[in-house]
Amino acid sequence: MSISLGSEGNCFALARDISCEAALRLGRAAADVLCGKKGGRLLVGTDTRRSSAAYEAALTAGILSAGKDVTSIGVIPQPAGAFLVKKLGADGFIMTGDPDKDRGYCGFTVYGSDGHRISEDVSEKINAKLCDHSVKSEMFGNRYIYADGISEYIGFILRNCGSELSGLTIAADCANGAVSAAAEKLFSALGAKVYLLNCDPDGDNINKDCGIFHMEALADFVRNKKCDLGISFDGFGSKCLAVDEKGIIADGEKLLAVFAKDMRERGVLANNSAVISASANLGFSVFAGENKIKPVVTKAGGKYITEKMLAGGFSLGGEQSGNIIFGDIRPESDGLLTAVLLLSAVKRSGKTLGQLCSVMERYPQVAINIKISDKWREVWKNIPELEELIEEKEKELGELGRIIVRENPTEPVIRVSVEGRRFDAVNSMALEIAEAVKRLCPVH
Known about the structure:
It is a single chain. The chain has 14 helices and 18 strands. With 444 residues, the chain is an alpha/beta fold. The strands form five sheets. The protein has a six-stranded mixed sheet with strand order 1-5-4-2-3-6, sandwiched between helices. Strand 14 and strand 15 (324-326) form a beta hairpin. Helix 5 runs parallel beside helix 6 (180-189) and helix 13 (384-397) runs antiparallel to helix 14 (423-440).
């Protein structure tokens, strides 16, 4: 059985065909690479899916058989594990589960001793050792249990960004995931009245019709209970989205705009900049220009946003999915941290979340995928008629719109994406370009 890396180069994603044997090999390989020749210790944490206990045991067996120690931190939000790896002085941290998928899927996310996800170079080294039977030890490591992880993590959030939130009524959708054990303690400590939704994991209901991918029920609850706002997490607790007092969903880019404006006004937005992905809605750049904030663009994905922030010394970055990163506090996205800072911004402003989110207008986007024959791959870029059509439509849109036409690197598909202020114009342009691609690059 082979083990493949995930799209960001540091998540060993095995989908539905994972075996405990494969998990054991991953534990042994990761221990060898991250801990080095002498001694060492890795942390292992899990989300709430039923399979996590078996995979944790297999990972642990692999690490111990490599002669390294293991500290089990149990069911815990992924950001908490990344925080603990530095606090406890471990050589790395492995999280089992999957932030977005239901109970049928599983993967492993690996962190180094610095609390950052491992680099692609380290991933490749681990990959190379997965089937290396020479990775073994004459001595077995020791296994320890650390039961104070969630309390330490909550204390960290309260010390670094906690503010008194009495008077706020919120609803929190925990996705029946890893934040379930931490959310009530955290929000109660801050003084907010909180309704907990989907906070009863049973091993099978993680991310099932709940969390950031299913926010309709949360929106209804906020409206019916007249909450100030609602917040929603993924199964790992690394992402956070929100709904305002009217039940309108605020995606990651809207939240990023709220944070950027708040931080700039308080003088804590480093370089008056925010790091965003290349696929970010054009509305964010318009908002940034109106508020003297510089958008710094990088590749899509939390990994690349973190790298750009570290390289440039930026204090804020994020993307639409709910990955929000506060570089002065944590090096990676943290759902509970994001939620607390959002509540603090709302309380401090004296405004509703809806009013705060109104600073950014989301521009309509239309994306169409067109299948082409292999013979047209790369060739389509040099078709004069298609080039002229795209240039013509770009001129029509002007600075308040953009057109991206690109080929999928893994399959013969061209994606046409058009963004602008008016949906009817955007939709018409996308359809016209898509039809031209179909006509000029026929499948047969």
